[in-house]
Amino acid sequence: MEAFSSSVRDSGRLRTPAAKAAWIGFAGLFALSLPIGGSRSGDLSASSAPVSSPDLSTLPNGWPGSVPEVDDEHSLQIWNAVYRQCQRFAITHDAIAMYQVIWEESRLKPEVISPCRLYKGIGQFSRSTFRRNVQAMKRLGLVPEDAKYSPFDPDQAIEVMAWMWSQGYSNHWGPYRLVARRLEREAQAARLTN
Q1: Are residues 50 and 69 in contact, defined by beta-carbon separation less than 8 angstroms?
Q2: Nearest in space to 94 (alpha carbons), one of 55, 65, 72
Q3: How many angstroms separate the CA atoms of 35 and 108, rounded?
Q4: pTM of the predicted structure, to 2 decimals
C-alpha cells in the first residue's frame, strides 16, 4: 500500500496504471462539466414549451420507439443533425439512442470538457479517438482530405459519432448501455400496453 501511495504522490501525478484508471473512472462520473467559452447558458428547463419540428412530425412509419424531447431550438438542431447523420450512415434505428447518449455525455453542450480534461465536445471524444476516426473517414472518402475537424463543432462530432456507431462502436460511449436498457424497457412497456 505504501508503494502505491508514494507512487501516486510522486510529483503530484498518477504514476501507476491502476491509479490512472481509477482517476479516469472517477472523473467520468462528473463528465458534464467545464464549459470553455461561448454564451450558451445550458438551461434546458422542462418548463419551456416544446419546439415543433418538421423532422419530428414526419418520422417514417414504423419508427422504433418514442421521439426525443426537444425543449428549445438548440436541442432541435442537435436532433436534426443526429437524425441526418444516422440517415447518411444507414443507422436511423439508433438515432434516439445516439441523441440520448449525447444528452448523457454533454447535456447537448458542444463546448464541454470533462473534469479530467481528456474528453471534449458534445460527443466527449478523446483527442486520439476523434483524430483516428476522422483519418479513417478521410481514407474512405467520407470527408474531404483537407477538411479540418474539431470535436467542439457539433455537426462534425455528430458525423464522426454516427460513423463510429455504423462501424459497431456504440459501446465506446459509457452511457450507451444505460440508454439502451432504458429504451428497451420503454419498448417493452409500450408492447404491454398495446
Answers
A1: yes
A2: 65
A3: 12
A4: 0.66
For residue 61, tell me if it sits in a domain.
no
In a domain, 58, yes or no: no
pLDDT 10s digit of each residue in the chain, 194 long?
Answer: 444 444 433 444 444 544 444 444 434 433 333 344 433 333 333 333 333 444 555 454 445 555 677 778 899 899 999 999 999 999 999 999 999 999 989 999 999 999 999 999 999 999 999 999 999 999 999 999 999 999 999 999 999 999 999 999 998 998 999 998 998 898 888 888 87
Q: What whole-number distance in Å separates Cα of residue 121 and Cα of residue 36?
A: 10
The domain in which residue 134 lies consists of 70-194
In-domain check, residue 11: no
Q: Are 99 and 162 in contact (CB under 8 A)?
A: no
Task: With respect to residue 13, please indicate whether it lies within any of the assigned structural domains.
Answer: no
Identity at 109, one-letter amino acid code: K
